[in-house]
Every structure is written in structure tokens, then in C-alpha cells.
């Protein structure tokens, strides 16, 4: 009788091991296909996000293959990171699959050139929060951290002095929770005036979206401040942490 009981306990533990969702690490997909300009910093960005995954207990898969953007594959991931994607990267079927993924509670993270992507797909522009319009030469600028009560910004100074490639935007969404703005008086070439966000998040169409315009230069991906910034965005998009503290 004791042997039967032991077998029962062992079987129960095995069942719990295989069905317990807490036991499985969440996964993200880093997608970095480019159909326009290819950023040399993508390689450093992939390595940095993989390291963040190891340190924070989530799995990081990477691809440039748009055929992976199908719903059966996407539903395995808590979030998809568009790492400096550019141009027209999806066909109609892939666009529909990604929309379905977001509408079913998926997460989106856009880094830098993710807004220089899919200009002919208005839904994507609304998800990302804006479209890229232009940029001046790389230079130092003052970033104003307008909300420091979030997991993506709590570690940042109120004025974050930084060198990068500073995007100007068009079609900026009106539903964005802006985290960081850029002071156009601190550099040359800004065209958005006082309404010049460079990092934001919002709930969109059933899912979660975070975007940061930073990340053009390779040095970004060894900068602890920037890495913690994108980690917060990833964790929010994955649904494992709330953005607001």
C-alpha cells in the first residue's frame, strides 16, 4: 500500500512540474529585419538583450526571418522587440498575424528605428506611437525625464545628457504616456518643438507597447542607464511588471 502511495505522490509531482506555468520562463522574440538602412548597432543590441534575459530570467530568441511572424509562433512570446527594424518588412498575412497577437494581449517593444518601419500600415504606426520623419547629425542633447515614477525611468536623472541620433517624428499619437522628452534648445536640428517625446508607453488594441528612440549608437548597449531603461520597457511589455511604480 505504501508503494502505491509513493507512486501516486511521484506521479502527482511530475504532473505539477509539467503543468505549472510558474516553472516555465517567459520568452521574448527580438526581431531585427531591415528593408532600409541597416544599423550596425543591431548586433550589440541583440547581445545586450540576451544578457538582460540571462540576468532577469527570461528567454530571448532572435530572428530576421519574417516567416516567424505567424500567430502560432508569436503566441509563444510574452513580447516582441523590434530592434531598429526599417522599411516594409511584412506581407499582408504577417501583418494580420501580428495584429492578432497584440489584440490577444501580446507585448511590443520598439527600439530606435522601429518607427522607421511599415509606413504603409497605419495600425503599426499607432502601435509604435509615431513615425520617424528626419534626424540631424549625432550630437549631445539634454533629455528631460518627465516621469521618473516608472520601472523604465526611476533610475534616470531629471536631465539626462546623452549623445545619440535624435529622431524627429510625424503622426505622434495622442494617447501616449510620455516618459522622456528632448530639449530642442540643447541641440541643433529638432523640428517637433515642445512636443518632442523620445520614449513612451501605452496600452493599445488589447496589448502593451513601449518605444524608445534611443539606441542608434553601439555605446548605448553597454550603458547601464540605457540598459535599465529598455529592461523596464521589456518587462512592462511582457506583462510581468506594471510600468508605473
Automatic annotation (TrEMBL):
Pinpoint the ThuA-like domain residues.
27-237
Q: Which InterPro entries match?
A: Class_I_gatase-like, ThuA-like
Q: Which PANTHER family match?
A: GALACTOSE-BINDING DOMAIN-LIKE SUPERFAMILY PROTEIN, SECRETED GLYCOSYL HYDROLASE
Under which name does UniProt file this protein? ThuA domain-containing protein
Question: Which species does the entry assign this protein to?
Answer: Candidatus Pedobacter colombiensis
Amino acid at each position: 500500500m505504501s508503494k502505491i502511495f509513493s507512486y501516486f505522490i511521484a506521479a502527482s509531482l511530475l504532473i505539477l512540474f509539467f503543468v505549472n506555468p510558474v516553472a516555465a520562463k517567459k520568452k521574448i522574440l527580438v526581431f531585427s529585419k531591415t528593408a532600409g538602412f541597416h544599423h550596425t548597432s543591431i548586433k550589440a543590441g541583440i547581445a545586450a538583450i540576451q544578457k538582460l534575459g540571462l540576468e532577469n530570467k527570461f528567454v530571448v530568441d532572435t530572428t530576421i526571418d519574417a516567416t516567424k511572424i505567424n500567430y502560432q509562433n508569436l503566441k509563444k512570446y510574452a513580447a516582441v522587440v523590434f530592434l531598429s527594424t526599417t522599411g516594409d518588412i511584412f506581407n499582408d498575412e504577417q501583418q494580420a498575424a501580428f495584429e492578432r497577437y497584440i489584440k490577444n494581449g501580446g507585448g511590443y517593444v520598439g527600439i530606435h528605428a522601429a518607427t522607421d518601419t511599415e509606413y504603409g500600415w497605419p495600425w503599426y504606426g499607432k502601435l509604435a506611437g509615431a513615425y520617424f520623419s528626419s534626424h540631424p547629425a549625432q550630437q549631445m542633447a539634454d533629455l528631460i525625464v518627465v516621469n521618473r515614477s516608472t520601472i523604465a525611468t526611476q533610475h534616470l536623472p531629471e536631465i539626462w545628457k546623452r549623445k545619440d541620433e535624435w529622431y524627429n517624428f510625424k503622426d505622434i499619437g495622442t494617447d501616449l504616456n510620455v516618459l522622456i522628452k528632448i530639449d530642442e534648445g540643447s541641440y541643433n536640428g529638432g523640428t517637433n518643438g515642445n512636443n518632442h517625446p523620445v520614449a513612451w508607453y501605452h496600452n493599445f488594441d488589447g496589448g502593451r507597447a513601449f518605444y524608445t528612440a534611443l539606441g542608434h549608437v553601439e555605446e548605448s548597449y553597454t550603458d547601464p542607464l540605457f540598459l535599465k531603461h529598455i529592461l523596464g520597457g521589456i518587462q512592462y511589455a511582457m506583462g510581468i511588471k506594471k510600468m508605473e511604480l
